Amino acid sequence: MPRFMILTAILLLPNIVLAQAQPKRGIVKLTDEALKIHHAGLLIDGHNDLPWQYRKLDDFAFRKFDIAKPQPQPQLHTDIERLRKGGVGAQFWSAYVDADTAKKKTAVKQTLEQIDVIHRLVKAYPDTFAMAYTADDIVRIRKEGKIASLIGVEGGHSIDNSLGVLRTLHSLGTRYMTLTHSDNLDWADSATDVPKLNGLSPFGESVVLEMNRLGMLVDISHVSADTMRHVLKVTKAPVIASHSSAFALAPHPRNVPDDVLKQVKTNGGVVMVNFYSGFITPEGARLGPVTMKAYRDLKKQYPNAEEFKAAYATWKKEHPMPQGSIHDVVDHIEHIIKIAGIDHVGIGSDYDGIGSAPRQLEDVSTYPYITQELLNRGHSREAIHKILGANVLRVMRAAEAVAERTK
Ligand SMILES: [Zn+2]
Description:
This protein is α/β, with parallel strands linked by helices and 407 residues long. 50% of the residues lie in helices and 11% in strands. The protein has 17 helices and 9 strands.
């Protein structure tokens, strides 16, 4: 081989290797095959914050926006037309209230109001939604052509240190509780606070066991990695992370590290991937804790809510978040498959709770692109259906069986 050819080959080699190692990351184009697979599956999304939007806009009577009509995006990620286009079969609606409500002693009241909003939302659109409390309900409602609606309480501050309140939330239809939100509790450490307990307190353990007994899924999103590990030691039922991505790909403290992913496999649980730009790229993840610190500092600096809002908006403008794309989200799905296996991954978009969504996953109409990209990367129809919802349905059934045994 002439010398120049050898040289050219050596120069080209790294590019060839790189081209083979990197999947194509251009625009994903929907095919009929993917759409067919997508709509034949049962998509169960672990987390949507639409109920919070009603509180934010002070619209508990559904007057300011009617999701039966198309809603402008990005103001809202969710409306009925787009839910249908996205093929959503079941949705865990989040009954989220700010962690601050714990200090003001309004957490329980506001949580009850958020649960009320979800029930009334379902009643307001009876042709579209129906309440679901069990895995069987989800399957039945899906067969009726409606979107099964479930309640997830986001943050243990909502029980105000009371197992009685926890049981009451369950009797009102709550089927998972995220153990913390952004702040530590007396009984569990959050991923985004300074560690105090390095896991759960003895009362925190009793909360987990009571949730097992009730058949309420234990949600390890938002908790510190040590709390995740502690929960996995204590729980008698499979757990979920209702909206969390993989720490190895985006080192945000509330993403799930690999050792926990392995334990989730042993536990039989499921990690439902969050779409938020700040949790899916390494740059976005690094900005997360800085943003949280700025949020807390500005909140102290500006006790007036309006002034705080303006100052925080300015700060965010000065620190733009890389948007990321559908490829990043599918990378997280594939990473969880690699570490925990195909039976332990799901979808937990966090729509209407996130300020930035990735390209081609801008709202609830876009889920079919995930199916398409999974198909493009060689995943089977069966694997895709597991990711879309079959895995979390299995976890629900297992948690229901544990509750049945410990009644
Ligand atoms: Zn959340």
